[in-house]
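Q: What would this chain look like folded?
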Amino acid sequence: MGITRQTVNKTLSAVDSKVHKALLEAAQLNRITINRVDSEKGFLLGRSPTLGTDVLITFSDANGMQVWYKGEGRCSECDWRESCKQKLLTEAEVRGISLPENVEAMHPSKLADCLFKKIVEG
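A: My prediction, written as structure tokens:
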């Protein structure tokens, strides 16, 4: 392709830096205390002192920046239920994460717990 290894490394480093900065800004905007950032994998793990819950911020080409709050949501009452579920399934696919067979029957908050555990561990 006519590109040096140094150019590739510089470009990847610049991308990681921009992802890192975007994750930090998302945490700041949402008033999240940061516990861990992995810009290479595109996630930030933190806690919302206001809500008293853990938070995962993800970044991917497919879903862009997403802020997810841990806990039992009222998904069955929410108009965004299917949209959230699709984003979670897309995030799993993009990251190469295998999910349980009963994923279609899973409540979105349970699906999120399963996915986030694998993202953070992975």
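The chain has one domain: 5-121.
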